[in-house]
């Protein structure tokens, strides 16, 4: 289940990315969760259910696996999205189905084995953990109305497992009658299905709030020393006849276009080189030689995505991207926010970690003579200390 927007997780940051596409220790959350499921032998097929406007985010993950099916577009509610996912499995004819939240990246084989074992004599099974805090009840949210018996309370997790046909039938009925269910076990209970408990895990956290991202990164990275690296990049392209330029993957009308082997996006080129520099990993030319015709006219998002991926492969994360565009024309100011948003999407980081600025050269030099555009960039990244090595 990966169709939500994660409003609570994003509340403290200026980001257009749903939480499942944000980075956790350098890798998108959804990629981590899917990878964990795909590695488990007991899982035979995985179907992601995504939001109706998330297709481009999902495509950017670049996922491919024999067990992984194409994403299913969900509905306006979690319940409708879950039903869409269940319906998509009909051709697989499964006996058992697991319904899992994308926001729980620490799912493992032991959790799933426990759910499967509990399903031996039940219609459904959910992993749970004991409630250790004292739980108070309040009718008005201001005063205590009673104390719950915590020995009878359990915190439910996912993946929740069910016999396929009964839970599909229950979801179909529930859509017609109600939409107030908070999880799939609640639908099973409503449908009078027997739901058993299995052993959950305190590691199986759900990333819900902004601070949960930091907690997840600590769990992944442990106590490894993180080292901050800064890289710089510079790029320049001359003008040639045309009617627009592409800067930061944004098309801007102009009386000329930039000349280059690719789309000549000086902004993305400078940013990619800054990331490569922070990694001590060569430059764009080393990874994408201009002598190779396959890159002729290429969309420069390819270069920035590749540099971003190289950071993730080292277990690092991007802390900040800063680019300055140098030109007399076109006017950059009206397009700064669009560039920031697009760069953040390409690099899978919060827009608050992207700075785009512009300046002129006071009519001096080739930019002053309006012969071309230049861009200089700086990238700040964080790498695990023991991951530092010669490329």
Polypeptide structure, described:
Residues 1-228 are annotated as: 2-C-methyl-D-erythritol 4-phosphate cytidylyltransferase. Keywords: Isoprene biosynthesis, Lyase, Metal-binding, Multifunctional enzyme, Nucleotidyltransferase, Transferase. With 391 residues, the protein is α+β, with helices and mostly antiparallel strands. The chain contains 13 helices and 18 strands. It has helices spanning 7-10, 29-38, 55-61, 78-88, 109-118, 164-177, 184-190, 210-221, 266-279, 284-287, 301-313, 336-347, 365-368; strands spanning 23-24, 27-28, 49-50, 72-73, 96-99, 124-130, 136-137, 146-147, 154-156, 160-163, 195-199, 226-241, 244-247, 250-253, 256-258, 317-326, 354-359, 372-384. Strands 5, 6, 9, 10 and 11 form a five-stranded mixed β-sheet that branches. A five-stranded mixed β-sheet has the order 15-12-18-16-17. The longest helix has 14 residues, at 164-177. It is elongated and about 75 Å long. Mean pLDDT is 90; it is low at 387-391.
Number of helices: 13
CATH architectural grouping of the largest domain: Alpha-Beta Complex
Main β-sheet: number of strands, strand sense, barrel status? 5 strands, mixed
Work out the count of structural domains. Answer: 2
**What's the oligomerization state?**
single chain
Give the mean pLDDT. Answer: 90
Which class best fits the helix and strand makeup? alpha+beta
CATH-assigned fold name of the largest domain: Spore Coat Polysaccharide Biosynthesis Protein SpsA, Chain A
CATH class of the largest domain: Alpha Beta
Classified in CATH, the superfamily of the largest domain is: Spore Coat Polysaccharide Biosynthesis Protein SpsA, Chain A
Task: Please give the share of residues in helix.
Answer: 25-40%
| Number of E-type strands | 18
Low-confidence stretches: 387-391
């Amino acid at each position: 289940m990966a169709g939500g927007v994660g409003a609570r997780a994003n509340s403290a940051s200026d980001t257009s990315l749903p939480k499942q596409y944000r980075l956790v220790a350098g890798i998108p959350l959804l990629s981590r969760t899917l990878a964990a499921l795909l590695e488990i032998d007991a899982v035979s097929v995985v179907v992601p259910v995504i939001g109706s406007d998330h297709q481009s985010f999902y495509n950017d993950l670049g996922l491919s696996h024999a067990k992984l099916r194409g994403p299913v577009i969900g509905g306006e509610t979690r319940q409708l999205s879950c039903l869409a996912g269940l319906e998509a499995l009909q051709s697989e004819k499964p006996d058992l189905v697991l319904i899992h939240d994308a926001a729980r990246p620490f799912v493992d084989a032991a959790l799933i084995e426990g759910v499967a074992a509990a399903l031996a004599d039940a219609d459904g099974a959910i992993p749970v953990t004991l409630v250790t805090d004292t739980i108070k009840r309040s009718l008005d949210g201001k005063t205590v109305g009673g104390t719950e018996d915590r020995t009878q309370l359990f915190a439910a997790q996912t993946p929740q497992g069910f016999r396929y046909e009964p839970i599909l039938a229950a979801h179909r009925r529930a859509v017609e009658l109600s939409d107030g269910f908070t999880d799939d076990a609640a639908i099973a209970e409503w449908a009078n299905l027997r739901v058993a408990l299995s052993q959950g895990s305190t590691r199986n956290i759900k990333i819900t709030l902004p601070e949960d991202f930091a907690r997840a990164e600590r769990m992944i990275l442990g106590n490894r020393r993180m080292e901050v690296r800064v890289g710089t990049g510079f790029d320049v392209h001359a003008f040639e006849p045309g009617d627009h330029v592409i800067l930061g993957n944004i098309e801007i009308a102009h009386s000329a276009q930039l000349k280059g082997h690719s789309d000549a996006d000086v902004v993305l080129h400078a940013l990619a080189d800054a990331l490569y520099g922070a990694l001590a990993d060569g430059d764009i030319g080393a990874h994408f030689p201009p002598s190779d015709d396959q890159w002729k006219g290429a969309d420069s998002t390819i270069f920035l995505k590749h540099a971003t991926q190289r950071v993730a492969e080292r277990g690092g994360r991007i802390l900040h991207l800063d680019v300055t565009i140098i030109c007399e024309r076109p006017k950059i100011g009206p397009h700064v926010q669009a560039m920031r948003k697009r760069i953040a999407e390409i690099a899978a980081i919060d827009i608050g970690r992207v700075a785009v600025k512009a300046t002129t050269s006071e009519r001096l030099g080739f930019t002053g003579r309006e012969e071309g555009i230049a861009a200089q960039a700086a990238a700040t990244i964080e790498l695990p200390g023991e991951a530092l090595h010669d490329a």
